[in-house]
Amino acid sequence: MAKVKKSDESTIEVNAERVEQPEAVESPEGKSSKGVARLEEEGDIAADYLEALLDIADLDGDIDIDVENDRASLAIVGGKLRHLVGADGEVLDAIQELTRLAVQTSTGDRSRLMLDIDNFRGNKRTELKKLAHEMADEAKSSGKAVKLAPMNAFERKIIHDTIQELGLTSESDGEDPNRFVTIYSA
After folding, report:
1. Top-tier CATH class for 3-118
2. pTM of the model
């Protein structure tokens, strides 16, 4: 049985029983926690699905659940899981989409959950932030727009967010699968 670790570092064993989520409560700031509770529910459903998938494939791994950037975030760590990522993350993307569909089937709502396996996305995020900094410097020094190679939506989002943090602008151009980011100097 896979172990599931929530962001509060507590570990739970996942089984087939569903636990009802508590009603939304008002925080001291007057904000409802229903959004977080809903994302936690998505994480729990996704963890159940992923645990069953790992069991079917007879693979070991721990599932960490968190909520970040207004979405459920899950990571499968431990074991020998690199083959579940694929050469450029295409297997990971497929498993993530299947997990999103499992959550949607259970909740009736579309899920935006993010899945990482073997820290592939974490490492990719670091590489892309470095690339964004380098290309932003190039755009500033040349005064010209810089076009990057085609990227998937996850990769483009990281570039856009980093460029925005640096005070520059960027746009996505083209059609999938050849959609790319253009970074502007001003």
Report:
1. alpha beta
2. 0.75
